[in-house]
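Lecture 7 notes: from sequence to structure.

We start with a single chain of 215 residues. Read the sequence below before looking at the structure.
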Amino acid sequence: MPGLETQRTDTDDMITLPQQVANVPEVFPNIDTGSRDTLTSRIQSEVTTNVTAPMVLAHLLLPHLLSLQRQATFVLVSSGLAFVPFPLYPVYCPTKAAIHFFAVALGAQLVGSSCRVVELTPPYVDTALKAGHGAEMIEAQGGEEKALKPMPLEAWLDTIMVNFKEDSVNEITTGFRKWEQTAWRTAFGLMLERRGVQRWTEGQVSKYKSAGLLH
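Now the structure, written as tokens:
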């Protein structure tokens, strides 16, 4: 393609990646497209914490949980921002989307085993994350009157514990986040079912079939 120039980088080497692209502005002063963003240590840390670590822990711990030959639970924490991203968190949102899809796929793999996967999808909860960005979030939503109000942490913890008592529950959320999660499953339910990754309970399947959303 006329005018197309490229520079090869080893994106698996996070240590040297900043040095690999350090000369890009000088060599390509008119650059207007990048296929990958340079990951700072902060971004790398967030991806490691939110995505890599849970996946590695699943790999390390699931063999033991399955060997117990009794009911066990592996918990993954995603977020409502996995379904509807918020501009203030351009890294956090996709990491939680990754965990959501990991939970869906892993849960499907373990169907019929003694271990279930439970995905916690917190709503907007009054935590340190909110404390650090509260003012920015309120401004981004158009002011105090229009901004969503955070759910008290204790109320969210109560929701978790009540649902954990139900062995058939594999997704725990509440409020607007529950609507988001239901909308996602409703939109892609048929495709998920055909690919063998649908994790609805029989009651949920019946409800959506009666509504004409599954066949």
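Residues 125 and 156 are 7 Å apart (CA to CA). Keep this in mind for problem set 3.
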